[in-house]
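User: Assemble these into one structure.

Assistant: Restating your components, then the assembled model:
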Amino acid sequence: MPDLAVYALRLGDDALVFAQRLGEWIAAAPQLEEDVALANITLDELGQARSLLSYAGEVEGAGRDEDAFAYFRDERDFVNVQLVERDNGDFGFTIARLLVVSAYQHELYDRLVTSADATLAAIAAKAVKEVAYHRDHATQWTLRLGDGTDESHGRMQAGLDGVWPYVDELFSGDELDARLVEHAVGVDPASLREPVLGYVRGVLGEATLSEPEPTTRYSGGRKGIHTEQMGYLLAEMQHVARSHPGATW
Amino acid sequence: MTAERADWPLWEVFVRAKRGLNHVHVGSLHAPDAQMALRNARDLYTRRQEGVSIWVVSAGDITASSPDEKDAFFDPAGDKVYRHPTFYHVPEGVQHL
């Protein structure tokens, strides 16, 4: 597979798997209004995933479309970071993850707007406005939960503690990233660390929360190594498409 | 969850569809505070580009006329024809009147 296709697949899988997780909140969020907010974010992420997976198929040139990538790949072929596949947990964990992922996607897409690849640049230009809103939503909730009651503060901090072991993976690049950076197509993940964590630290400070210092840091998602929760997510996402291949309405 | 819902106050939402038009009441929603109400309003009432500006007002801050006073409030205006601009011709092409 060409480097560019793999790169599009990585970003697309991040968005697809994150959308699948966030979508689980629909009809289960604390309030009807929050249901709609999370559903909007879910649909934005799904839209980004569709563009990126379609583009990956186009670059690969083997006739695979977005559905082939989403529904007919097995776990080891997914190259999303592990953070997005983790269970939603409670609302605290969900917001903590949304804060980190949206801050990451915002810095990433903001830089990809000037990519030498015109399609990636166009997808990023649309996405950067969407994720700016996701980041704002997560920020508003982090401030309210962190600087709220003892219960909300405790849950928000616990959510951050659960997210942090997976944060490093967002910023670890490999040879493929390096090759794409050389051609001004991709973004060096390591270069995102300071701006992303800088933003998040600002929010945490204002919300009276502290940045966790995890003893364990996980990674491997980009190589197809996933956590125990990924298989269940794929089973739910893929089973209809696999039970009725080619079905349409 | 029902108890928590009762804690979230009600907000009335006004949306300006485009420049030059007034903000129009479009509905209400629950939110913990004004800033969140504004964001919820964005998600609930401007999904299809319905607006360029949103106001939210705490429902408790609205003083409304009472249905019981309807006759005294509104009926006397009905038979005062000189208050209505019926003697002007509206030029062609004028919108939003």
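The helical segments of chain B are 2-7, 34-45, 70-74.
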